[in-house]
Amino acid sequence: MGDPTMERQRDLFAVAIYDCAVIAGIVSEGLVLTGPELLLIADDLKGYIKMSKKSVMPYKCIACAHEYAADGDNEDCPECNCYGTIKDKS
Fold first, then answer.
1. N or C: which end of the chain has fewer CB within 10 A?
2. pLDDT value of position 56
3. Which helix or strand (DSSP H or E) is residue 4 part of?
4. Which helix (H) or strand (E) holds 87?
5. 3-state SS assignment for residue 5
6. Mean pLDDT of the region 73-90
7. How far apart are CA 22 and CA 19, in angstroms?
8. Element (H or E) spanning 68, and its range?
């Protein structure tokens, strides 16, 4: 029998990958997966993350025309600090 701590960590890691895959829509909930399948799914998730980073449209400040990526919490322009100015995503 292997090290119970390592086996527990492995199982938690597998569940984490599985949960992310379900949320991402890669697999259906309730599907039983093997270790190699989870590794392939982790690679798919990496691809989704790379794709999502490339598809983010930058904000364009109407006041100074500076383009930037908003962090979700703060959408103010970092160039001119125009707090509350409307941004155009075009």
1. N
2. 59
3. helix 4-24
4. strand 87-88
5. helix
6. 60
7. 5
8. strand 67-68
Task: Show the tokens assigned to 44.
Answer: 């798919």
16: which 2 tokens?
A: 């984490």
The domain segmentation of the chain, as residue ranges, is: 4-54, 57-90
* Distance between CA atoms of residues 15 and 38, nearest Å: 9
Cβ-based neighbour number of residue 17 at 10 Å: 20
The predicted-structure confidence for 23-81, as pLDDT tens digits, reads as follows 988 999 999 999 999 999 999 999 888 777 665 556 777 777 777 666 555 567 777 77
If we measure between CA atoms, which residue out of 58, 41, 61 comes closest to residue 49?
A: 41
Highest mean pLDDT among 2-11, 53-62, 78-87: 2-11
Structure tokens at 5: 């701590």
Distance CA 83, CA 65 (A): 14
